[in-house]
Amino acid sequence: MTEPATQPAPATTAPPVVVARGLTKTYDTGDSRVHALAGVDVEFHRGAFTAIMGPSGSGKSTLMHCLAGLDAPTSGTVHLGGTPITGLRDKELTLLRRDRIGFVFQAFNLLPMLTAEQNILLPSQIARRPVDRERFAHIVEVVGLRDRLGHLPAKLSGGQQQRVAVARALLNAPEVVYADEPTGNLDSRSGAEILEFLRDSARDLDQTVVMVTHDPVAASYADRVVFLRDGRLVDEVADPTAETVSSRLLKLEA
Q1: Cβ pair 3, 43 in contact under 8 A
Q2: What one-character-per-residue DSSP string does 43-67 give?
Q3: Residue 100 contacts residue 80 (beta carbons within 8 Å)
Q4: For the chain, N or C: smaller number of CB within 10 Å?
Q5: Which domain holds residue 44?
């Protein structure tokens, strides 16, 4: 995977899209308690692409799940825009995730009997939301799927399937897109293409993107990298390079 040229981070004068304050998550394992998150304060701004990194067991995925309303923190708060999502009922969380959050996972999560276009449009159809055809056409063009819309997932490469998943996540202009190891199942070339799409969506579509990754090269596509260790936010880097990220990770793992 080729490291991208360093670009200046976008201005962050607007209020943050996502805010976490004092976030903790504790698991009871029977004989002991595991503190997956131990008081995390973090913000994510519109039009910025942020990577979350840290050693294995540092709390990366737990933090993303709490930010996205997929898991409830033990204490602390998460706000999406002006909405406090901690404490929402299950039905309210379901609607919030459907209407205001986009997700891209390591698994593509496409329905095999639907074409690429149908997979992209499916969430809008489920929500009975009108599709902005101009935005649809623009996103399809950006992710390079215009000639593949009629193909079933089985006829698409892994990189193309993940492009479908990215387009699906971006279509309804969510307030934030969470990407959990989005290039984990891809070769280096396809992975680089997906990371470029995520980076471009932040800059060209003013999209907030938050990505969990273990890969320093993947993180170098982001505008900012925040580092966790033992459930705490311990460092961050703006305008990251793969070398800078690797150096910080080595220090955290030492």
Answers
A1: no
A2: EE-TT-EEEEE-STTSSHHHHHHHH
A3: yes
A4: C
A5: 18-105+176-253
Domains held by the chain: number: 1
Residues 138-185: tens digit of each pLDDT:
888 878 888 999 999 999 998 899 889 999 998 888 999 999 998 888
DSSP sequence for 101-150: EEEEESS----TTS-HHHHHHHHHHHTTPPP-HHHHHHHHHHTT-TTTTT
Report the candidate in 93, 144, 92 with the shortest Cα–Cα distance to residue 116: 144
Question: How far from the centroid of its chain's Cα atoms is residue 181's Cα?
Answer: 8
**Domain harbouring 194, CATH code:** 3.40.50.300
Give a yes or no: residue 124 inside a domain: no
Confirm whether 223 is domain-assigned: yes
Pairing of strands 209-212, 176-180: parallel
CB half-sphere exposure, 36, CA atoms < 13 A: 19
CA atoms of 115 and 124, how far apart (whole Å): 15
> What distance in Å separates the CA atoms of residue 149 and residue 134, rounded to the nearest whole number?
15
Residue 10 has pLDDT above 60, yes or no: no
Is 192 among the domain residues? yes
Compute how many other C-beta atoms are within 10 angstroms of the C-beta atom of residue 145. Answer: 20
144 lies in a domain? Answer: no
Radius of gyration of the chain (CA): 18
Q: What is the pTM of this model?
A: 0.88
Q: How far apart are CA 192 and CA 201, in angstroms?
A: 14
